[in-house]
Specification:
single chain, 316 residues, alpha/beta, five-stranded mixed beta sheet, 13 helices, 16% strand, globular, NMT1/THI5, signal, Hydroxymethylpyrimidine transport system substrate-binding protein, SsuA/THI5
């Protein structure tokens, strides 16, 4: 059984310059949006159970040197597949990148607005006059605006503070009253392990249309490649296996990545299980159309694209 390989982006560039082996048509490179973590478990389990090999594929997972560069690198052909965020896909399309979603990895939002459970904020209304820490502007700003509006507030009612990637530490230290953008399957557990219970407000329960947190993207001229439906078939079988055999799946995950065998990743693994797409190739056209309309309404894009411009269903 082949172990999933890693290389840096620099290494990838070197590999791209080498002569391709005879079996190159069956190789696939997947550029991750972040370092390997439980969000990527279906691909790890597919490799560990030989599901990619069953499909005649040799799949290489590549953590990014710069997470923000993933869309550009996939568009430029530096990897066959990228792991991306559905909201950002619309922004990349508006910027002219030739990307298209062909599958879903995590089919629910993971984003939250988080406060301390024992603090004074019991509802979004209580955020009036408070400080909210954030890491990345853009979609999260629109998400917050819609969530506040659901309670009769606007962004002018709060003070936004850039805490870079120090979301939970800033909240625990009292530097901010809430954080924007923490993932419900990681930051809440991280806080609990450090002795602080968090309270999360979910965007899809406060006016933001549901969306896929993580999707598989490729460049448009690769959308008809016969390897993609085989890749999704293996991922689907892995996701179903994880649902049916979670403890065995966790054992396979940490066998592949023993450095991730700790309390935080274990809890994140099991918390993420119900959020993995069990039909990763399925495309909900109406859902994508609604979300595009939301981004247009919030002013993040000038016009919502037709769904077929940014999302396809392969292997039909």
């Amino acid at each position: 059984m082949k172990r999933i390989l890693f290389c840096t982006l620099a290494g990838l560039s070197v590999l791209a310059s080498l002569p391709m082996p005879a079996s190159a048509a069956d190789r696939l490179t997947v550029l991750l949006e972040w370092f390997v973590n439980p969000d990527h478990a279906p691909m790890v389990i597919a490799e560990q159970r030989g599901l990619f090999a069953r499909e005649g594929l040799e799949v290489e997972l590549i953590p990014p040197a710069d997470p923000s560069a993933v869309p550009r690198l996939v568009s430029a052909g530096q990897a066959d597949i990228g792991i991306h965020y559905q909201p950002n896909l619309y922004l990349d399309h508006a910027a002219g990148l030739p990307l298209v979603r062909f599958g879903t990895l995590v089919e629910t939002p993971l984003n939250t607005v988080t406060v301390l459970a024992d603090g004074p904020i019991k509802s979004l209304k209580d955020l009036k006059g408070k400080k909210i820490g954030f890491s990345v502007s853009g979609f999260e700003d629109a998400m917050l605006a819609r969530m506040l509006a659901s309670e009769g507030l606007t962004k002018d009612d709060v003070e936004l503070i850039n805490v870079n990637f120090s979301l939970s530490p800033s909240l625990i230290a009292g530097n901010v009253d809430a954080t924007l953008g923490g993932f419900r399957n990681f930051e809440l557990t991280q806080m609990r392990i450090e002795g602080h219970q968090g309270r999360a407000f979910f965007p899809e329960e406060h006016g933001v249309p549901a969306y896929d947190e993580l999707v598989f993207v490729t460049r448009k001229d690769l959308a008809d490649d016969a390897r993609l439906p085989r890749f999704l078939h293996a991922v689907e079988d892995a996701a179903i296996f994880m649902t049916n055999h979670p403890d065995e799946a966790w054992a396979l995950f940490v066998k592949a990545y023993p450095d991730l065998d700790n309390a935080l990743n274990r809890q994140a693994f099991f918390d993420t299980l119900p959020r993995f797409a069990k039909r990763p190739a399925a495309l909900d056209v109406g859902r994508y159309a609604r979300f595009g309309g939301f981004l247009q309404e919030m002013g993040l894009i000038e016009k919502a694209p037709a769904v077929e411009e940014i999302a396809v269903q392969v292997g039909k």
